[in-house]
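Here is one chain, start to finish.
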Amino acid sequence: MASKPARKTAKKSAAKKARKKAPARKTVKKKAPARKAARKKAAAKKAPARRAPAKKATGRGKLKLTIGIERYDRHFPFFDSTVKVPNTIDLKVLQVGQSVTLRDGTDRHGRMLKGDFDVAEFSMSTFLMAKGRGMPIAGIPIFPRRLFSQSQMWVHPESNLWHPKDLVGKKVALSSFQTTLSLLAKGDMKFYYDVPWESIHWVLTTEEKVKFKTKPGVKLEFIGDRADLGRALEAREIDAFFLPHPPHSVVSGKTAARRLFADCKAEELDYYESVGDYPIMHVVAIRQEVVDRNPWVARAVYDMFNDAKRLAEEYYEDPNWSRLAWGRHDYEDERRLFVRDPWENGFKRNRKNIERFIKYSHDQGLIDAPYEPETLFAKQTLDT
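Its structure:
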């Protein structure tokens, strides 16, 4: 058995050895945080890929769409943001005119062809020509502007012109040859009233949006200055004009003019009952690239326009919503006379209307050959 001094010496020796080893353990503890920091730094470099969903949550993942439209009542819901926009779309709405300047400019159709908008209200006639030439746009079967041709035919009030047959050999002004109202009026003259449009001397005031070759023997003359047509009619420099927007001097009463038909409303109702629809003027067009990259967007745009139309119809439940004293009465009369909604959208409902425009366009030399209406629209909307 060891003596007490020996045991004390042994304990002191063991304690000294323990103290010598301790720093090594402390050094290990100091290195651990460094390794942990290195691991955090390496992980941070990979973090952005895992944080991507957060960006979508803040709205950065939405599809941005710029839309150019007119200020019709059926478009009000776009301007006051009451239209239902999918949460996958970041919509920028521009109020753009065609022949007039609105808040966000003019020349909507030309600017759509240049790519200024992703979606736009667009000339039906120019749309047919653009598609026939392979331009990169697709149609959405929404038709926000419609007109009968009969109310847009104007003559001198003292003339003896009362029917399209009276215009044979006369000088008639148009906006452009391909303007949709021009296309419709010429086509109606030939196929509805049996008056060949080729027998008229046409005077043009606006450059064509899409170039084409005129049929042989057709009389065309470019004079420009559309705003001056009221004076030209009053001075008998022209015999009539067919325009989607009559000159300001005429609608304001500064220059005298009257419509060709004595009772346009009755004439148009007969036309409607005969052909079965309210003629299309404009279609909604979308850039082909947008649809190709996002096939779902075609149906989303279709739904937004129909939602806006529904909201606009609700305005008329208030008998004093319109500034017209008998606005509600006129609304009810229209529903009774047309039997079904003349503004109904969708491909199937409007197929015959579209076919007639294709027929007119081919006859007038604006497209090289007729084609099926299905080829004009985004395939996601053909079941509407």
